[in-house]
């Protein structure tokens, strides 16, 4: 970030959003999660929903992939272990494994006592070339609930990107703000599903064009958002300013806070680039200039800056997310059974401390992996 962006980033960290969240350096340095075996997982307020959610949410997606690729004993043992550790929210989507993730969760849930069952959130996509948005959504949600074995879910997300009108033809899964917010649009359709009792709250995935996302967030129509945030792209907290070499989300998190939205942090490991230098083949780029080589360069620079003192790369990345007072919970993708224990270990270490945050701020401001020079920008 440039000097202005870093100052804004620090101001938001000081401000926080909820009275129970510490502020200032205390917000960065104070552990807010399970510190010892047997202690409960720390919980945070999930915006205006009034729900209390765990610091970590179990991610059922493709990048982590255990629910899609793992054996039945591995999946069951890992879900049981997560629930025992206090992770009582699972995030999935119709797209994950073409329904496999939802099916696995639906098969596991009956074995869990009703009083202990986790909350489930799921998502739908729109094919803009197919028309009949309402029918697409209704069919997708009905299929998701059938696979999950549920009558309703607490939270339903729009999974499609939100883009500018000029980018409308980019792909068949992108929607404009007008298509989301206009009469009879996605928000209206989701409100009808809520009125039918199929979900309690509605949310969106904060990917696409930042200006279009800001318009949708600022409308106040949505109760929750999934927001891209990690220590090689922290721009959802504050704009990076000129020269930033990837997507600049231009302070999406403070806008969510202004609407009192619950926020799930996503891609905390940058599709695995912050967890390991070894590629698993599921690194799907969802931001600009985020191909493997570019992300590896950013991750390497961050690791060199932090060193080993803050845990493994994955643990330092997760601790960075825990230091952000505007995230309600962090969705953690689990690829192997031991990944869960590593994540819980990071939570036990507490948020990344202030000196580490300051070192990263300097890195974002000056390193060529993150920022081009004025000469490069005008070449």
Strand content: 5-15%
Strand order of the largest sheet: 3-4-5-6-9-10-11-12
- Per DSSP E runs of 2 or more residues, the count of β-strands stands at 12
Look at the structure and give the mean pLDDT. Answer: 87
Question: Which sheet architecture does the biggest sheet show?
Answer: 8 strands, parallel, barrel
From the 3D coordinates, which CATH architecture would you assign?
Answer: Alpha-Beta Barrel
CATH superfamily: NADP-dependent oxidoreductase domain
- What is the domain total for the residues? 1
| CATH fold label | TIM Barrel
Structure description:
Helix content is 39%, strand content 14%. The protein has 379 residues and is of the alpha/beta class. Strands 3-4-5-6-9-10-11-12 form an eight-stranded parallel beta barrel, surrounded by six helices. A two-stranded antiparallel ribbon has the order 1-2. The protein has a two-stranded parallel sheet with strand order 7-8. α11 (292-306) crosses α14. The model is unreliable at 15-37 (pLDDT under 50).
Give the gist of this structure.
The protein has 379 residues and is an alpha/beta fold. The protein has helices spanning 3-15, 24-29, 66-69, 72-84, 100-108, 133-148, 177-181, 186-195, 210-218, 252-258, 292-306, 313-322, 337-349, 354-366, 374-377; strands at residues 43-45, 52-54, 56-59, 89-91, 119-124, 153-158, 161-163, 174-176, 199-206, 224-228, 262-266, 329-333.
